[in-house]
Amino acid sequence: MAVYINEPSHTFGEYLLMPGYSSTDCIPDNVSLKTPLVKFRKGEQSAISLNIPTVSAIMQSVSDDTMAIALAKEGGLSFIYGSQPIESQAKMVARVKSYRAGFVVSDSNISPEGTLEEILVLKKKTGHSTVAVTTDGTEDGKLVGIVTSRDYRISRMDLKTKVKEFMTPFENLVWAPDNTTLKEANDIIWEHKLNCLPLIDSKQKLVFMVFRKDYDSHKENENELIDDFKRFVVGAGVNTRDYAERIPALIAAGADVLCIDSSEGFTEWQKIVIQYVRSNYGDKVKIGAGNIVDKEGFLFLAEAGADFIKIGIGGGAICITREQKGIGRGQATAVIEVAKARDDYFEETGIYIPLCSDGGTVHDYHMTLALAMGADFIMMGRYFARFDESPTNKVNIKGNYMKEYWGEGSERAKNWQRYDLGGSSKLSFEEGVDSYVPYAGSLKDNLSLSLSKIRSTMCNCGVLTIPKLHKHAKITLISETSIIEGGSHDVMLKESKQIIGS
Ligand code: RVP
């Protein structure tokens, strides 16, 4: 007979946190959001900890190198999407690792034979108005000029005009050698009243750009997630098919941590990938696995040797797995059960395996709930897709700015490896949709607001750390009527406000 679980599974929106006693030192400034990323033994520290408990989803529409840099600057981590050729994924990882705070690898490049029209397309795509002109149009080609919006006037020029005719040529540029420090670069920028300074090597090849605004913002990021060599920490997604080629390339590119990206992780395929890592790299290479939704799945991946375990099936904003296959579980119930299994496992073995709640985080307070229920960090797709730093287009739909957001199981992403169950069938039906999410501005502004809500809620709960929140949170299931009571009700709103974080 089939196993029946007759208790309904619940999602975050059905729970609330209840306050605990808060002493006078329980203030948001005293809260630490530091959290372990990979497993560790009792009494030891995790080899990698996040400074904030958020990671961005392993998705084409969410996590590229730009997102990874922006999130690491704030103390979190991105897993660069794996549904792309190995070389391009490794290149993204390498770009994050070679990023020196304040030093940018130019993302807007063109050859002198390009046209004004192409400059305008590039500007629309990247949102940047400074374009490097290199002989071959690449980010590290020989620098022959720069184009900024001051170099052309669309109303007076033919769109077919060649870049070489209106760029500021190399001989008129202020530039510096590639070993220039950030402080020196900044001095040059101020002395010459520049917006940007190209750094070139001995062969005149473009290495970095230093922008005035990046120098300013760098000074604000004390929480950034960096390795021993002061490089940003970055993760990468892998699959259960081409792992023997992909993993070595990602490790060579400098990936700090890997994660098997799969809609369903309770499979022998995951064990095989983890075994591959252990037999080739021992414990040096860290790899997370998932997704699972119950104790059995957790124990399987724990025994298989996963460094962290990801929870969640079917809760993602763009996910239709539950509709298509009838597979999944309410995210809150899944986190609660798996966290209990993790705590018992820790008791028995002395090994603490961090848990990641993945998908279905709609409101900021859902993050705090996920943490309170036992997650160590939270993976989000929709949340990050709304920001400037996500890789997708910003489009105007009926007067509102939106960003595109599509699932890895959609026809657009064609990430069949994520849904692979062996055999040769490729994505025979979709498990994700292609959608828009409201554009929300910069990652930094939105994330700091969300984190300040988490800190403040933790103070209400009377705790200053995530491990203490795990232990002392009081959580109540609420009725449907209480959910209605939770919003403004029985009043007529004077103006409709945009809901941030939803
Ligand atoms: P959300 O944060 O609710 O947008 O969910 C993101 C998560 O959804 C991802 O981390 C992944 O686990 C899942 N996902 C990604 N693509 C799809 C799909 O196409 N069904 N689901």
TrEMBL record:
Signal peptide: none annotated. CDD domains: CBS_pair_IMPDH (cd04601), IMPDH (cd00381). NAD(+) binds at D261, S262, S263, G312, I313, G314. K(+) binds at G314, G316, C319. It is an enzyme of class 1 (oxidoreductase). GO terms for molecular function: IMP dehydrogenase activity; metal ion binding. Its EC number is 1.1.1.205. This is Inosine-5'-monophosphate dehydrogenase GuaB1. It comes from Acetobacterium woodii (strain ATCC 29683 / DSM 1030 / JCM 2381 / KCTC 1655 / WB1).
